[in-house]
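In response to the reviewer comment on reproducibility (Comment 2.3), we provide here a single inverse folding case reported in full, input and output, so that an independent group could reproduce the run without further information from us. The structure tokens appear first.
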């Protein structure tokens, strides 16, 4: 048979092309992946130095910063914008801050103002080419201070006294739950049934602690009343207590069948009360006065000899004013006064003197036992004008002719 035909000639150009294609396809694939991987590897990361920051209302948070890193390395020159929410602001009042990171990659943030009251917010930072990062903000409490003022312009704050405390009618004395505070010092615990007053500039309180009645004053004097029953109630007159219908002074029952008891101090420690349909007054010296003309339906004030029967104001045996309301009285040293609302205006009377007016004090206000001091909502009034706002639990007293108030002041930032 004839020999087979020779094989066709090899196309060298085609072989080279196929061979080159086999090598170039993987090279094209690698070139496509490499930019994406590099971008991910070079992404900036923002990190706050804390995950949360907290402060006291109306104070500032300091020391917050955010760090820019690339590939784990702190990076300078990156513009970072940080914003605040929830009422928080940077120093100066702005809610946004933009800075460039330093050589250590940090952006040190300005002081952050914490808003009034209990609050929460967010601190958020962003930079080009990076995900945002956030931290939480919180503010605790209200900037409340125990505050005292008097009619001569004296002003003080007892900043150690807890915001939850309430003032007594004794200057500088406050009760926080069962903790007794004098000025900025907690002086006793486990206290209940407290009453207080101020006599000649000396504030005092009497209270039950456990099974013991205790009296103490601002000059360091203290005594116990071991005979007084635990079921008794203290008055605002030193040494005087009421147990049901029994009236006690120091160690003895001095009258029975009593009701409507009010007490005060005007150089002597006194009480006035009703028994058998008649009003009486007594003091610690043994003096007893009968108010035979005062109606049995009246109510005693904390000013000796002053009573209110409906809208009638009585002094000693006389009906001295009609159509009164909101009557408050006190008995500082050697004088007895009342303040009352009549016909939409505020007036005062001292013993047998003619009435004096407080013409600019709002009719919506309430008088305190501090002469000339009123509270209208949360506004404290004296001398015909508002002297403070944001006040609560206002108590007042009078030393001589000088009226004073103490209260919890929660004025917003």
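Designed residues, in position order:
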């Amino acid at each position: 048979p004839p020999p087979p035909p020779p094989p066709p000639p090899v196309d060298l150009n085609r072989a080279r092309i196929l061979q080159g294609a086999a090598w170039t396809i993987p090279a094209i694939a690698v070139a496509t992946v490499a930019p994406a991987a590099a971008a991910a590897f070079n992404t900036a990361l923002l990190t706050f130095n804390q995950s949360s920051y907290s402060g006291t209302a109306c104070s500032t948070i300091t020391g917050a910063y955010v760090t820019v890193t690339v590939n784990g390395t702190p990076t300078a020159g990156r513009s970072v914008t940080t914003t605040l929410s929830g009422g928080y602001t940077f120093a100066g009042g702005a809610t946004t801050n933009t800075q460039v990171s330093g050589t250590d990659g940090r952006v040190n943030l300005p002081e952050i103002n914490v808003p009034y009251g209990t609050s929460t917010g967010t601190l958020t930072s962003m930079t080009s080419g990076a995900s945002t990062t956030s931290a939480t903000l919180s503010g605790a409490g209200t900037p409340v201070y125990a505050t005292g003022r008097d009619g001569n312009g004296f002003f003080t704050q007892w900043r150690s006294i807890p915001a939850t405390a309430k003032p007594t009618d004794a200057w500088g004395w406050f009760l926080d739950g069962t903790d007794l505070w004098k000025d900025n010092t907690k002086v006793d615990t486990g206290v209940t049934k407290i009453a207080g007053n101020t006599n000649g500039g000396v504030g005092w309180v009497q209270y039950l602690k456990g099974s013991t009645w205790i009296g103490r004053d601002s000059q360091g004097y203290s005594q116990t009343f071991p005979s007084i029953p635990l079921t008794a109630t203290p008055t605002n007159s030193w040494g005087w207590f009421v147990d049901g219908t029994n009236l006690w002074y120091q160690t003895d029952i001095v009258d029975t069948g009593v009701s409507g008891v009010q007490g005060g101090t005007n150089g002597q420690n006194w009480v006035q009360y009703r028994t058998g349909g008649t009003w009486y007054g007594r003091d610690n010296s043994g003096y007893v006065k009968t108010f035979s003309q005062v109606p049995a339906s009246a109510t005693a004030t904390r000013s000796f000899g002053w009573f209110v029967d409906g809208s009638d104001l009585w002094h000693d045996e006389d009906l001295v004013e009609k159509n009164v309301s909101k009557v408050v009285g006190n008995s500082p040293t050697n004088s007895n006064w009342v303040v009352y609302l009549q016909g939409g205006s505020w007036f005062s009377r001292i013993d047998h003197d003619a009435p004096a007016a407080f013409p600019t004090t709002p009719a919506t206000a309430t008088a305190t036992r501090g002469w000339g001091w009123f509270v209208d909502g949360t506004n404290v009034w004296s001398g015909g004008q508002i002297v403070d706002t944001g006040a609560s639990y206002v108590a007042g007293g009078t030393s001589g002719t000088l009226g004073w108030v103490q209260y919890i002041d929660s004025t917003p930032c």
